Amino acid sequence: MNSQVLSSQTIELERDQVSILGPKLELHDCTIISEADGRGMAFPGLRMHGGVFDQKQALRDFHFEGVHFLRVRLMGKYIGCDFGDWEDMDRSSVSECDFSSARMHDCRLLNCDMKGILIPKWPCFCLLNPAEARDFVILQQWPKKIGLILDIYTDSDRECVAVLGDAGMLAKESGLPMSEIRELLQTIPGLHIVD
After folding, report:
1. What is the per-residue pLDDT across 168-187, written as a single tens digit (0 to 9) for each?
2. How is the chain classified by DSSP, letter by letter?
């Protein structure tokens, strides 16, 4: 699908098929229902204004490169995904989007204004400007697995304006209860939790 402007349409990205949206594709108040994984999707020039991107199976390690999301509601599960662009906001961007219905872990928001972006509720959490929390994180004594993850989260360039994680997944990886993880996380400058 390319070189067109669509309004109020539903687009399905099917499992075990390659789906390419773009170049020069604009979607206004459309719904994308995706069953695809990262190997089956490419978005070389997609502008999505309003609407919903609903990822039905966990999407892992995917960079939404070539995508401009503006006022889009994202749903589903995202693990290790990047939204926006490290260098060129003309290539990819995310603005005024609603992630409150998504489950996110190890995801990064790049070169965006966090004002107007809604983050998921606990057990998800958001570390704003993770590079600025770097000194704090490396000076603390953390349980081993938590410390390693926080080291990775904060060892980032300033273009990464937020990292989103899932305390439920941290609890599973570390063996710590979520209440203890929450207490640890809340000490970090720039850490936000929505109840």
Report:
1. 999 999 999 999 999 999 99
2. --SEEEES-EEEE-TTS-EE--SSEEEES-EEEE---GGGEE-TTEEEESSEEEEEEEEES-B-TTEEEESPEEEEEEES-EEE-SS-TTT-EEES-EEEEEEEESEEEES---TTPBPPPTTEEEEESGGGGHHHHHHS---HHHHHHHHHHHS--TTEEEEEEEHHHHHHHH---HHHHHHHHTTSTTEE---
Classify the phi-psi angles of 133: left when phi > 0, otherwise alpha if psi is within -120 to 50, otherwise beta.
Answer: alpha
Parse the chain into domains and list their residue ranges: 1-106+113-118, 120-195
What angle do the packed helices 167-174 and 144-154 form, to 10 degrees? 140
The answer, as to whether pTM is greater than 0.70, is yes
